[in-house]
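Forwarding the complex inputs:
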Amino acid sequence: MQLLSTPKPDRQVREKHALNEQQHQAATYGQVEAGKGVQSGPLLIIAGAGTGKTNTLAHRAAHLILNGTSPDRVLLMTFSRRAAQELAERTRRIVAAKLKERGEEECAAADLSWIGTFHSVANRLLRSQAKSIGLDPDFTIMDRGDAADMLDLLRHKLGYSRTEKRFPHKGTCVDIYSRVVNAQADLADVLQQDFPWCADWETELKSLFRAYVEEKQKQLCLDYDDLLLYWFHLAGEPAIANRIRETFDHILVDEYQDTNVLQAGILTRLFPDGRGLTVVGDDAQSIYSFRSANVENILGFPQLFSPPAQVIPLSKNYRSTQPILDLSNALLKEASTGYKNQLFSDKAGKQKPWLVTVEDQESQSKYIIEKILAAREEGVTLKRQAVLFRSSHHSSDLEINLRRHNIPYVKHGGLKFLDAAHVKDALSILRWADNPRHRLSGFRILKLLPGVGPAIAEKILDFLELNHFDPASLTNFKSRITAEKPWPALIKLLADVHHNRIPWQEQMKAVNFWYRDILEEHYDNHLVRNGDVEQLAMIALQYPSRERFLSELTLDPPNKTGDHGNDSRKDDDYLILSTVHSAKGQEWRNVYILNVVDGNFPNEYATNNDAALEEERRLLNVAITRAQRELHLMQPLRFWIPEQQRYGGKHVYGAKSRFLTKALCTALEEIPYPDTRLTEQDIAKGEEVLADIKGKVLGMWE
DNA sequence: CACCCAAACTTTTTT
DNA sequence: AGTTTGGGTG
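Prediction (whole assembly, three chains):
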């Protein structure tokens, strides 16, 4: 297992471009008023794929700063931390360059300080404003897995595990809860709409969620949804909302097409008339509805205000050749809703994207490897090529073959480093020491001790609570089990970390030292797992404090890469494999899209729902628009679907993807692989062979 | 009460 | 094919 720092896309070239007309208009929208900075009404920038959105946004931020808005009065929200860093960096560079032009001294204050994801900004705001709403600022942030675990425990406590019919899976429970919160919808509606098979459990779910909320408050923790929800409610309190509002002159939001009702609500509560609000996005790239993102947010944005928001489209694409854009445009034309921002490019290009028909996944892999190696021969590095897919496991056949050919690769999306049980264990120790009220972590750790199961763990946690959550008090807990040696060492560790008796830089190491024996006892291949845990300690060193480490790690979990044979970080060049979702915002010279067949594009679970179907179309669009020069859509005839409740799964003789209509096919060049088309030579040779056979057959009777 | 084993279940994408 | 759940055993 390896962590990677995501490679920065190669965008140096574009920055040299001056802004085009549309970009300039978007970047400078509003009036400059002396002493007051830039005054602007609500603005929506529809930024198609590859239209220089980040650059425009950075220029807008720079424009605000250069015209007198203090950088710490600009709130900039992005979809991921990586995007935030890139944007901050570019803005700084633009401001610095302009100041130099003007001959002014570079001012250190050019740094945007309020920049990050909605969740991380919420985290920061809540911790600073916590006192004013009676919230303890030392709350712990739970990730999705934690939420699932807590729901699981509560569900047992409430007796829902012993019912005749099976209660929904814990993961499903989190999904339902999360949907209700993020979409600000009714439980009954959500069940009916998205989880019909759970509709019978409405009453139970309601009390489960109530218990969940109480439990979170008791343990002093917030989940992802709470971060937004608390912020939303905070923004609904006039006094506090005013205070927050007065600290910002401008709010800029990136990837607005992937915000949900709650996030939109936060914005309108902070800036009700839309003045100072800029949102940027592309409805044709809205692909996060499973996370309750709501395309209606961007489609309906202008009408939220009167007069309506200014809409500026960016339609000049700097990324792809025209034939690739033709395909994307054709696809979007068939969508039922949206701004349908048609893109154009200066890069003519002759080659249409290929639609490659292959027999099965094996020959799909074979084709891709052949093409990738050929391209590398011609000087296109592996890093400038990417293979994209709808779901994480679709790359498994390819991965096997890449390893066989010794082609290094890095996979984005899918499993997370923090999902590994042993990493969770180590982190839980630190979290429990950090926040002893956090029963969930304590519970997890205690169960690791030999002879301690759920019941004893509960007893210990109750004991701790009675003793005002003082870790040292655990020495007084008497039981035959706690005489074992890991126990006193654990208590000392918890107390030392909790009271910072050892410096933060040493704490994770101390945790690992204690955990090492447990790890060995509990899991096989503990050497590999121990490596992960040590890596965690290395990561921890990069953070200035325990609090920052714990919350930022939860808000921005590092990726786990597929193990790619050898240490591929030593190889400078490696191929990128990525889910389409994780490919957002990126670009590569050559792109290969796996399994473009019905049942996958669109996904079979989306086929009886119009809204979902539209999203699948946009998903394909995102994949297509990642390509700069070469694009290969792969179409296996035989396609394996891992179907539920059925033994193994099944092979399906793939129907052509319903998105590949006639109109689309004219934008594609269809080829079979292996190439079974006959050349004239083949035919001539065939005739020769036939004549030969005829002769032999006749010869039998001579 | 902890641990083990067999049956049941299962979409996919992620802050 | 792999994880989670729930029941049985020691």
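Residues 1-16, 561-569, 643-649 of chain A have pLDDT under 50 and may be disordered.
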